[in-house]
Amino acid sequence: MDSGKTDDFYDVYEVFSKRSHKGDFQHQFSLLAPNADMAFIMAQENFMRREPVVDIWVVKRSDIRRMKPEERDIVQRLDNKDYRLTKGYGYLRKKWRQYEQKMLDEKEIMSWAEDRPHKEKRQP
């Protein structure tokens, strides 16, 4: 794994930004800086004045942990989640269509009024 250290003075930092309050953070770029405060200032100067953002994260690359190969094998075993898919409910569309065809529509209901003989008003 890359430690993110380039020499004894600079560290590699990753910059993430969020464009709206409801949006997700997205990785934007990497930068070299001597410390976290300087990395944050550089990220603000290089990115925030060009793009409209509501928040940024600046993270030292060496602080980001990635999965080891043996951990990936465990995740692949846990990836069998067919029970979460809705492919078992495919018959419902056909069943719903049959139900809708049996339902009475507005034209049919209005035709009933035409079939009924009109009562004539009685004269007193």
TrEMBL record:
<dbReference type="Pfam" id="PF06243">
    <property type="entry name" value="PaaB"/>
</dbReference>
<protein>
    <submittedName>
        <fullName>Ring-1,2-phenylacetyl-CoA epoxidase subunit PaaB</fullName>
    </submittedName>
</protein>
<dbReference type="InterPro" id="IPR009359">
    <property type="entry name" value="PaaB"/>
</dbReference>
<dbReference type="InterPro" id="IPR038693">
    <property type="entry name" value="PaaB_sf"/>
</dbReference>
